[in-house]
Amino acid sequence: MVGWREVVSEFAGTALLLLFGLSAIFMDFSQGSPMMSLIPSGDLRRLLTAVIFSFCGTLIIYSPLGRISGGHINPAVTVAFLQLGKISAKSAFAYIVAQIAGAVSGAAIVALIWRHRVTNSRLTVTVPGPEGVWVALIVEVAATFLLISLILSLLEIPRLMPFTAAAAGVLGIVLVFLAAPISGAGLNPARSLAPAAISNTWDDLWVYLLAPVCGSLGAAIMHQMRRRTIPCAKLIHDRSYVCHLKNCLYTQTQSRGT
To answer: How far is the C-alpha of 118 from the C-alpha of 31, rounded, in Å?
Structure first.
């Protein structure tokens, strides 16, 4: 069972992700923002937002917060490791609660900071595009499947593990840029739930709670079918930080070595 340090790290990491990521959306798309005139192209501003969101997530994972907890900062990531038996059910529950609480806290701070420019409470809420709910559902499932598949594929090779967060960040930029006009590019139930709760906007939220979990489980199950082994549920495993996650092969190897 993980301790309070891991849970607090997940809370703080997810709060920071929402704080900077949602601030990027307001900076790039809110009325009155200088970015609207500096970068007239909506596509370029969407790309900039994707870069900021993904870059912040990558930095959080490589930071001490990520090294303590593993840097999940997304319930979909935790669900994948639960399916793979790399985190206990109690620890997964604690992580997901911390992620949701952190996301809501981060979104609340953003609402306070940017309230003088908030003319559209739905600006940071993930909603389906013109193609409709079912297309958005499919896109969210597929995008999360690709993201989790990449993470698992890199983690299974110890020498590539240090690059997992960076590679996921790059893929995240591509996925957010491409999927945002179609589905809103949630890919993270906590990221979608928090702005919905803050703005009291619940339209089609089920899509953004269900789809990432389905995509994550699909990636984890396919990984199991390939009979691959994930050494640890941490996206960045630093031996300087004690690991309390289930079945950590790095910890077991270190214990045998001593």
So the answer is: 8
| pLDDT bracket for residue 20 (50, 70, 90) | very high
pTM value? 0.93
Helix-then-strand count for the chain, H and E: 11, 0
Cα–Cα distance, 198 to 148 (Å, whole number): 27
Query: What pLDDT, in 10s, does the model give residues 179-229?
Result: 999 999 999 999 999 999 988 889 899 999 999 999 999 999 999 998 878
Handedness of CA 106, 236, 223, 249 (dihedral sign): negative
The values of phi and psi at residue 46, to 5°, are -65, -40
Phi, psi (5° rounding) for residue 123? Answer: -60, -40
Q: Report how far residue 188's alpha carbon sits from residue 205's, in angstroms, rounded to the nearest whole number.
A: 12
